[in-house]
Amino acid sequence: MSNDKISQQMVDLAEVEDTKLQQKSRHSYSQGQLIRRRFFRHKPAVISLVVLAAVVILAFSSIGFGPVPGWWDQHYQATGSIIDGGRPMMFQDGSILGEHPFGQENVGRDYFAMVMRGAQQSLIVAFVTALVSSIIGIALGAIAGYFRGWVESVIMRLTDFVIVVPTLVFAAMLGNIAGSSVVMLGVLLGCATWTGMCRLVRAEVLRIREMEYVSAAIAMGAAPSRIIIKHMIPNSIGVIIVNATFAFVAAILLETTLSYLGMGVQRPEVSLGLLIEQYQNAFTTRPWLFWFPGLFIIIIALAGNFIGDGLRDAFDPRQARTRDSRPSLGGVLGLRSIQRAFRLKNEVGMSEGIKDPYSETTGSGRKK
């Protein structure tokens, strides 16, 4: 079966599901409502959205941000006496958090406050990077897809040049320019990571450009800028949102790598990658200094990937997987494969006339 037939069948399946959903509630839904309902049927994406929102709220509400104070009274730069060797104090003396829930580092600073500050900085860098890369990629991709010709050639050759240069090397060069400003670091990283968005938007605009309503707008004398802004970009919003979500996750990992190499966020500020780099030598003696920032990086990256997967399924029914095709816990652990093997063995045995020797015995193995 060809890929076109498979894609058409998946589209038809999505349309049937949407029709059932509308008939069940006895009223029609707009496209936006259908997208929201498809997304909220994607349980891993919804759970990940809640987890990511909880991480963001915890990071910015605990120690505060800027002039806004937080509910945690420890400052991430304040030193103090080391208690109990700096070990985590969660669930001690009847308290859930304790005085230092994530422990203390070498000079007695509260590690919970440091991890929260690191999460703030990493999230800001990732958000700014995804925003800047999306803006640049959308603009260049839409222009290249609409005007074609030499304009497209110039933009795509520039895109190819940026792709050829290793992203980590390019980002490291720009990271040294940013200094201690996390916003500037995000802007410069966005200038190095826009190529994926550009190529996807260009492909989408090339498809939309052949639509009848675009031809009608051109025939009516609409300006190219109006056609791009009013028709091209809004109808590419699904591709843009999904790719921006994955760009956010990639930016988190890129910032972590750069900070680990000493080319990202600079001291005295902290980030999750910088905390891992700073306390990697303490992994064998005080592993919690390595665990907590690493745990937050994993949570943010996994949550972002699941959210992106849910958005992709919601915006593009052709890529949506049925419930049976989604990996379950049994499938991940290999239990489903074991069940299939036993089922196949039984089917082969029945087809060959092989009987279970215990099926005709009762009690301690005597024949009926």
UniProtKB/TrEMBL annotation:
Q: Name one GO cellular component term.
A: plasma membrane
Respond yes or no to whether keyword Transmembrane is given for this record: yes
* Sequence ranges assigned to domain ABC transmembrane type-1 in this UniProt record: 119-308
Going by the UniProt record, its keywords in alphabetical order are: Cell membrane, Membrane, Transmembrane, Transmembrane helix, Transport
Superkingdom of origin? Bacteria
Q: Which residues cross the membrane?
A: 45-65, 123-147, 154-175, 181-201, 236-254, 288-308
| CDD domains tied to this protein | TM_PBP2
- Its topology with respect to the membrane? Multi-pass membrane protein
Which organism is the protein's source? Auritidibacter ignavus
- Mostly located where? membrane
Protein's UniProt name: ABC transporter permease
Subcellular location per UniProt equals: Cell membrane
